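Before relying on records like the one below, remember that each one covers exactly one chain. Contacts with other chains, cofactors or solvent are not represented anywhere in the record.
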Amino acid sequence: MKPVDQRIVLLEHIFLSESKQAEALEELKAQFRLTEESLKPINLVKSTLNDVPFSAIGKGILNGIVGLSTGYIAQKTVFGIPLNPIQNILKSAFQFLTKKRNP
């Protein structure tokens, strides 16, 4: 029976440890790339918009955005750019009358 050379055993353990370390490093790099991609502003907005319709806060925000945009469009189409004080008064009255009332 041949004696076991401890240097060879040690080198095998070192090689095995280095292989495991390299594999763990690759997994860490892959996870970092996924995290980096998910933290990009456009992806944050997308994930937020995907979650918005399912939450009460999201519905309120969505209703607010829709209300503001329709009010802006209505104001621009009905009054355009106000040129005189009478148009400013009419614009204010129109906004007051069309404002959503909470019961």
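The chain has a mean pLDDT of 78.
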